[in-house]
TrEMBL record:
This is Nucleoside diphosphate kinase. Belongs to the NDK family. The chain holds residues 57 to 216 of 216 of the full protein. Its cofactor is Mg(2+). The lineage of its organism: Eukaryota, Metazoa, Spiralia, Gnathifera, Rotifera. It comes from Rotaria sordida. It catalyses: a 2'-deoxyribonucleoside 5'-diphosphate + ATP = a 2'-deoxyribonucleoside 5'-triphosphate + ADP. Residues 12-149 form the Nucleoside diphosphate kinase-like domain.
């Protein structure tokens, strides 16, 4: 029972993670999934989608007007992506650490971008950077019925 565990407060935090078109083309979908899954996070939504322009304009609205905006939308819209929602304690912050820095050259080895990327414009994965971004992005990419609530039977071995 969840309520028996001591350190599960906050374990329902969710983040939006996306394998970008380069990650899909390079066969890294399984690797991204594997890392989050084996860390102990719970996968609650997953789909492949070739994102329409309007969705990307909304997703990247904070970058509108920047010099990398048009190339960014062309890049992310160039093929299917794998969108997912992961749940667990501190998953937003820890997920960003698992991704590495925006610029793969500044990402530590052991991070996804640090292991598989070289340039910022092909940095393989996206992850929400705050609670408000996570909520906004999950609502943008998934309908409520596409997100599953399920009990992770290993959670008493993941949480104290
Ligand atoms: P983040 O994805 O690590 O949160 P943001 O600054 O929000 O980083 O930028 C969103 C995405 O835009 C980056 O992941 C990257 O794909 C792209 N991007 C950001 N800055 C540049 C740049 O200077 N050149 C090319 N692409 C960039």
């Amino acid at each position: 029972k969840l309520s028996v565990l001591n350190n599960m407060a906050g374990a329902s935090e969710r983040t939006f993670i996306m394998v970008k078109p380069d990650g899909v083309q390079r066969g890294l979908v399984g690797e991204v999934l594997r890392r989050f899954e084996q860390r102990g996070y719970k996968l609650v939504a997953l789909k492949m989608i070739h994102p329409p322009r309007a969705l990307l304009e909304s997703h990247y609205e904070e970058h509108k007007g920047k010099k990398f905006y048009d190339p960014l939308l062309a890049y992310i819209g160039s093929g299917p992506v794998v969108a997912m929602v992961w749940e667990g304690l501190n998953v937003i912050t820890v997920g960003r650490k698992m991704l590495g820095a925006t610029d793969p050259a500044k990402s530590d080895p052991g991070t996804l971008r640090g292991d598989y990327g070289i340039v910022t414009g092909r940095n393989i994965v996206h992850g929400s950077d705050s609670e408000s971004a996570a909520k906004r992005e999950i609502d943008l990419w998934f309908r409520p019925d596409e997100v599953s609530n399920w009990v992770h039977t290993a959670e008493r071995w993941i949480y104290e």
